[in-house]
Structures are given as structure tokens and as C-alpha cells.
Design goal:
Number of domains: 1
Low-confidence stretches: none
Helix content: 25-40%
Order of helices and strands: HEEHHEHEEE
Shape: globular
Largest sheet: 6 strands, mixed
Number of helices: 4
Strand content: 25-35%
Length: about 120
């Protein structure tokens, strides 16, 4: 599924521009389902619904029904949010394979699809 998220990232960046962070993680609170985390300078309060709908549309076009059902939530965050700061310590392509505390939750698995702290 990582390859599919890389393709989704490419389409997101073609649509709006570079992202600060794009990651997928599994935490204790969601029974083994994925949380998709996005941070981009172009994702603002006034266009958050549009960005969310575009991401859902990309998921519908690029992921199987089973893959879509494995996603519990999509979070669109600002750069100064604690969860983003916690994840920006990891570089693009990093895979979280062991239990790691992030934003107070135990993360069991995760992929940092893109991490651009200079953005």
C-alpha cells in the first residue's frame, strides 16, 4: 500500500504543491486501522473541506475497497501542531516498525511518505 500512497502524494502535489508531511500510522486507539496525516502550507482553514474531498477522491480512485476500509481517519494539520512536530523528526521513506510514542499514542506501524521540515 506504500506505493499507492506515494502515487497519491504525487497527485496531491501536482494539484496544490509540496506537502510538509504526509504519513500513515496505526495507533492503539483505532483497533489496527490507519490514520492518514497531512500537513501542507496550502491546506488552510478556508479550503480544508476541498482538500479533504480531494484526498477522499484520490483514495476512491487509487485504493481498493478493503484498503479504504482500513483507514479510520484523515487528519489535516497545521505545521505548528504537536503531532506534526512529532512526525517531522522522521525523514521521507522512514518506516515505523516498533512501538513508538507519538502524540501520546503508541504507534505500532507507520510510513512517512513525505517529510519536508524546510517547507
Amino acid at each position: 500500500m506504500v506505493e499507492k500512497f506515494n502515487e497519491i502524494l504525487k497527485k496531491l502535489e501536482e494539484w496544490k504543491g509540496k506537502v510538509v508531511l504526509f504519513a500513515v500510522i496505526k495507533t492503539d486507539d483505532l483497533s489496527g486501522k490507519w490514520s492518514v496525516i497531512l500537513c501542507a502550507d496550502w491546506a488552510k482553514d478556508d479550503n480544508r473541506d476541498e482538500v479533504f474531498k480531494f484526498i477522499v477522491d484520490l483514495f476512491n480512485k487509487n485504493l481498493t475497497q478493503e484498503e479504504q476500509e482500513s483507514i479510520a481517519r484523515i487528519g489535516i494539520y497545521k505545521k505548528d501542531d504537536y503531532v506534526i512536530k512529532s512526525l517531522l523528526v522522521f525523514k521521507s521513506g522512514f518506516e515505523i516498525k516498533s512501538e513508538t510514542k507519538i502524540n501520546g499514542f503508541t504507534t505500532h506501524e507507520g510510513y512517512i511518505v513525505a517529510s519536508n521540515s524546510e517547507q
